[in-house]
Amino acid sequence: MKNLNGLYESSSLEVFSKKVLNELLSDESITMTLSAEETLFTRFSNAKVRQITNLNQAFIDFNFIKGNKTLSFSLPFKATEDDFAGALKKIKESRIWIAHLPEDPYLVRPEFYGVTKDENLFDLPSNDEMLSGILESASHVDMAGVFSSGDIVRATINSVGQFHWFKTRNFYLDYSLYNNKQKAVKSLFAGNEWDVNALQTNIKDSEYKLSLMNRESKKIERGSYRVFLAPSAVSELLGTLSWGGVSMGDHQRGNGSFKDLWEKKKKLSPKFNLTEDFSLGMSPRFNDRGEVAPSLLPIIEKGELKNFLTSTRTAKEYKVETNFATDWEGMRSPVIATGGLARENILKELGTGLFLSDLHYLNWSDRETARLTGMTRYACFWVENGEIASPIQDLRFDESFYSLFGDTLVDLTNYSEVIPNTGSYSQRDVGGSKVPGILLADFKFTL
Predict the structure, then answer these.
(1) Which residues make Cβ contacts (< 8 Å) with residue 47, sequence separation at least 6?
(2) Is the pTM of this model over 0.85?
(3) What are the structural domains of the chain?
(4) Which of 32, 33, 97, 307 has the most CB atoms less than 10 A away?
(5) Residue 234 dihedral angles phi and psi, to the nearest 5°
(6) Positions of the chain with pLDDT lower than 50, given as ranges
């Protein structure tokens, strides 16, 4: 990785932060959180490069506290002398602005949560070599998508001496293949170890699914069906569950989804185990305050809710114990334990029903009862007697997590897939999930 003015070295942040901290008054404190990346973004259309961008950017978010009041601001960071001048100007302005703000009754002041440095710098080929591998592997198909690779940094440092540094290197190819009817199959090839043979296998699997899309689509009537959800679809379900579903704050405010599970009025399947597991190495354990979450936190264990994700602010407000979640109290590195369903037996065990590769447009339909709604997407098929018969027209479902991971859960696959977060609206996301596929005895479709 290029060392642009030391932008991606921990020493640059340390030098900058010491200068800033020396300017604070006795009743002031501050926490600084760095987000930095060196990223290659490449867009493909018809298996050709249509856009390529090398992005180097870094921002520091400041949480400035004076007395019992707090104010936040953000500045670009270039590891130059100009950074300090910009920060000092903002601090002086903040002293004026903060006087007009109300006191924060649940203010969480900076504390010392240690000093850590975690770098997962896997040895990837050059971007040119990886791009060449993609173009050669997909030269005979109509592929559109995005390839992204590079280093990501997250760090936090505060006025009481805490300093945490996280740096990782990975890639993902988020792509779709199209046939001459403009029907598509979506897939993801991602990781931190490049294997061109694995890439070719991934594309061949997508080609096979695309060949099935040439068959006439079957209209499925609304009702209940036996269903297999591929890992990518299961990952979408987890994404929705992070929107307040496992948040202690939302639970306390009456907006949560697992009140009955927490009070042991209901249970999920004993086969279902969900853990926040930072050993995936895709997200730092520390949050924006620098609080370090447990490396392993059971959320649901054998169908019973063991922990909500609880931020220190929520803990202070509702007088409960924190487990150092982020303020939004969503999962950063969720892992669902595998089951006993082998890949080669999926269609046989499904029998007659629906094979769903992807879901989208997911949202809560009734959060308090853990109900969600969404649509099938891309390569979804009708299966008869253990064989794929035809693609299906898109369907809308409305189901409950109590059903999906409870009463109707037949089994989970004996393999998992690591699915990184691919968001990049303002910066490249960190985090991801590791999930198996799931076989369900009953899945309800409304349209």
Answers:
(1) 135, 138, 139, 140, 141, 142, 143
(2) yes
(3) 10-212 (3.30.2290.10), 223-445 (no CATH)
(4) 32
(5) -65, -40
(6) 1-5
